[in-house]
Amino acid sequence: MKVILTRHRSVGILVAKFNSSNKADPAAEYDLNTDSISSSKGRATPTRKEREAANLRPLVSSDRKAGNKASRARINEAREKARVGMANGDEKFLPIRDKGAQRRYIRDYTDARWSVGEAILPVMFLVIILTFAFERNTAVSSIAIFVLWGFFLIAVIDCIVAGLLIQRKLAAKFGAEKVQKGNRWYTAMRTLQLRPMRLPKPQVKRGAFPA
């Protein structure tokens, strides 16, 4: 649409007149606009199906899945390394209660000796089996329970003796003022365990006492 400015002769005022003959066609303008947009993109406008297909993406990308898989593999490898290190007595992988030269000495000394407490679990299972097998025979059940309590008492005495003996050896080796607290309890707990079930695993043979 064009605007023409004319001067009124009598007053000398500029008057704006609209030229109705030059009205723009909206449809023609829309076609020109769409043509210019399409030509500027260099390709045709995508359809609705094409846009929906382009927006469809997997919730978890393949790269993320691969990253999670690699992360899990690293975690499992680290756990296995820590498990093997702890079983072998590697100081770096041991918990606080097992760390230190004194605790290693206790483990080696306990593993080198024969302990009554090692057999306490097998004896308990044997007594339970006998009790169920001879539940009608009260004499056998009573004897089995009596044997169990007697064995338990002997195991406790053995733990006390082992704790006192190891405590004395630690004082002679490291100094009485440097002996850690809780060594007797640590000795008793290891003494009452079966040798194959001990962690860290025994690093010495029977009779090979540490110096």
Written description of the protein model:
With 211 residues, the chain is mostly helical. It has two domains: 54 residues, no CATH class; 99 residues. The protein contains seven helices and two strands, in the order ββααααααα. The protein has a two-stranded antiparallel ribbon. A hairpin with a 6-residue loop joins strand 1 and strand 2. It starts with a strand and ends in a 20-residue tail after the last helix. About 9% of the residues have low confidence.
Summed up, what is this model?
With 211 residues, this protein is mainly alpha-helical. Helix content is 58%, strand content 6%.
How far do the termini sit from each other? 110 Å
Q: Bin the helical content.
A: 55-70%
Total domains: 2
Following the backbone from N to C, one meets helices and strands in this order, namely EEHHHHHHH
Shape: elongated
Oligomeric organization of the protein chains = single chain
Classify the secondary structure makeup into a structural class.
mainly alpha
| Total of DSSP H or I helical runs spanning 4+ residues | 7
- What is the number of E strands? 2
Q: In what order do the strands lie side by side in the largest sheet?
A: 1-2
Which labels suit this protein?
7 helices, 2 strands, 6% strand, 58% helix, mainly alpha
